[in-house]
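sanity check this fold:
=====
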Amino acid sequence: MLPISNHIQFKFCLLIYKCLTDSAPRYLIDSISLKPTPSSGPVTRSALDRTLLNIPMCKLTCGDKSFTAAGPSIWNSLPRNIREASSLTQFKKLLKTHLYNF
């Protein structure tokens, strides 16, 4: 069993994955957005990563704990191979392994 803090991260990531695969409620899907790709200038490897999410700025610390801020932040901290999982089952397996070893 995962520790509580890791379990919360698991739930956030699971919801984000479902949002990105259109299997979450519309209001959650609409609350997240992919990080825009640069149109000009130097391009870094992370700028080419199409699985990174935009993290909104929060004025209050309590806003940092909301789904729209905490979800993308936790998601972006995952290794790329987990974010690019091809199925929900594979995603859960990779994520649990990552969080157990974290």
